[in-house]
Amino acid sequence: CNITLSVAPALALTSAQASLEGKDAAAIHAAVRKGDVLIGDGSVMLGVKIGGENRSALAVIRGVFKSILVDALLRCDGATLNFDGIVLRNHTSTGPQLGTYLGAHYLASLRNNVPALLGSLAFFGNPVGLMRGLGDGMSDFVSEPVKGLKRSVEELDPSFVVDGVARGTGSLARHAVGGIADSASLLTETFSKNMAVLTLDRRYAQQRDRGTSLRSAGRGTTTFVDGVESGVVKLIRGITEGVTGVVKAPMRGAEKRGMEGFAKGVGKGLLGLLVKPMIGLSDAATDVMIGVKGSVEGSVGNSASYRGLHGNQIRPRRAFYGRDRAMREYRLADATATSIAMRTRLAGEPYLSHCDMGDSVALLSVKRLLVLGSEGEEVLVVKLKRIKDVEVRQNPKQKGLLDWGVFLSLKEPRKNGREAEVISCQEQSIALELCAQTKRAINLVQNESS
Q1: Which residues pair with 407 in a beta bridge?
Q2: Sign of the CA dihedral with 395 first, then 397, 400, and 401 last
Q3: What residues does 402 pair with on adjacent strands?
Q4: Which candidate in 305, 314, 347, 381 could, as Cys together with 11 as Cys, close a disulfide (CB 3.0–4.6 Å)?
Q5: Is residue 195 scored above 60 in pLDDT?
Q6: Closest CA to 144 of 173, 165, 174
Q7: Residue 230's pLDDT band (boundaries 50, 70, 90)?
Q8: Which of 174, 150, 177 is CA-nearest to residue 164?
Q9: Count of alpha carbons within 13 Å of 261, Cβ hemisphere only?
Q10: Is 194 left (phi over 0), alpha (psi -120 to 50) or beta?
Q11: How far apart are CA 390 and CA 410, in angstroms?
Q12: Rounded distance, CA 408 to CA 420, Å?
């Protein structure tokens, strides 16, 4: 049994990553992603506050380092796992004995695959994939001239030898250049992702995560020109974000927490001035390398290795429901909604349901309700635990007309002073469906907390 495994980078702190990091490291990771940093509070010069406890700078460094390590171990690209089969003849045993025997067999097979898994990690640039590609190129470099020579002898035409040498040489060059470019892009992409967390700017990290990745958007059709264009844009954006952050970060901090927030904002701004241009440069290098890989592989169509990873995917990934990650019958609408949610602030939160409202869509996770507009912008985000009641009402529109909407009554006023939110719907049936889904989600949250 051969299994090809690829794990894409997560856009948020997932439950699997949090469990591997441990409770303390995951809490520090989440606080750093939010930018909740303490500067000179009397007990520590630099740290984070989790609950009522202050964590020192050393604890922050340990937690972030552990998070980076876990993230690296959870990302792989085209890892091939080989599991040997097992044959039992005239075997008599109980169910538990058989389970133990099979478990030991496949556990031993999994141990044998550990080197392949480590060699396929994106953190190391997928050296196994690089060597596999170079091996395919060397195989073509030798076999294609031999095939051409045989055909030349059979048909007494020396041109087939020349064609074989050209094909073999071209294949070796494509695999070498494409493999090296792919490994380099994985290394720079990993660097950028981890550096974005260290900016302590949650808004910048979220905007960068939601941005379209050239690796996933191109699907093998990206060219070198596309890579250069995207790289230049990201480089300019990184420099711009770094320079403007020196002014914006202190202003935002002062608005929220006065002089303390202003001091934190100055620190974050100076840190961003140093880190964000580096991230922009790394993102630019990543896109250029992806463009190089796409160009050399696109010259002969999609490569076999690329097809094995992306080319045969004809539908979005299956949706799993709730905290238990329950599997149900495949629904294309739910799978599409899950893919959309992974590009928003709901990324990493277990999916519950969604409601298509025509010109907008409502996404429900186990924690929050998110409404996206027609352009994909976030219109409304509400935590489920803060909703007191949900009901369907008719709202007045222009010229005396009435429109249907879902009225969310909140337990406490929001920062903008609102005590309720209204989600407009085009039809009564849509409003009723969204109201029912929201009530189910709230009941689920209440049952889990009780």
Answers
A1: 391, 422
A2: negative
A3: 396
A4: 347
A5: yes
A6: 165
A7: confident
A8: 150
A9: 10
A10: alpha
A11: 9
A12: 5
Residue with tokens 């929201």: 438
| Amino acid code (one letter) for 402 | L
Other beta carbons less than 10 A from residue 283's beta carbon: 28
Residue 183 CA neighbour count, 13 Å, CB half: 18
Three-state secondary structure readout of the chain:
CEEEEEECCCCCCCHHHHHHHCHHHHHHHHHHHHCCEEECCCCCCEEEEECCEEECHHHHHHHHHHHHHHHHHCCEEEEEEECCCCCCCCCCCCHHHHHHHHHHHHHHHHHHCHHHHHHCEHHHCCHHHHHHHHHHHHHHHHHHHHHHHHHHHHHCCCHHHHHHHHHHHHHHHHHHHHHHHHHHHHHHHHHHHHHHHHCCCHHHHHHHHHCCCHHHHHCCCCCHHHHHHHHHHHHHHHHHHHHHHHHHHHHHHHHHHHHHHHHHHHHHHHHHHHHHHHHHHHHHHHHHHHHHHHHHHHECECCHHHHHHHHCCCCCCCCEECCCCEECCCCHHHHHHHHHHCCCCCCCCCEEEEEECCCCEEEEECCEEEEECCCCCEEEEEEHHHEEEEEEEEEECHHHCEEEEEEEEECCCCCCCCCEEEEEECCHHHHHHHHHHHHHHHHHHHHHHC
Q: Are 405 and 423 in contact (CB under 8 A)?
A: yes
Report the candidate in 313, 295, 449, 292 with the shortest Cα–Cα distance to residue 386: 449
pLDDT at residue 28, as a whole number:
55
> 293: closest CA among 2, 77, 3?
77
How many whole angstroms separate alpha carbon 41 and alpha carbon 27? 20
Tokens of 344: 């928003």
Tell me the residue type at 199: T
pLDDT score for 41: 46
> Which residues contact residue 135 at a Cβ distance below 8 angstroms, ignoring those fewer than 6 apart?
none
Q: 394 and 428 in contact (C-beta within 8 Å)?
A: no
> Other CB atoms closer than 10 Å to residue 198's CB: what's the count?
16
In angstroms, rounded to a whole number, what is the distance separating the alpha carbons of residues 347 and 8?
Answer: 13
For residues 265-278, give the mean pLDDT. 85
Distances (CA, A) of 260 to 6, 37, 263, 265: 44, 11, 5, 9
pTM: 0.58
Better-predicted residue by pLDDT, 303 or 364: 364
Q: Residue holding tokens 């949250």?
A: 445
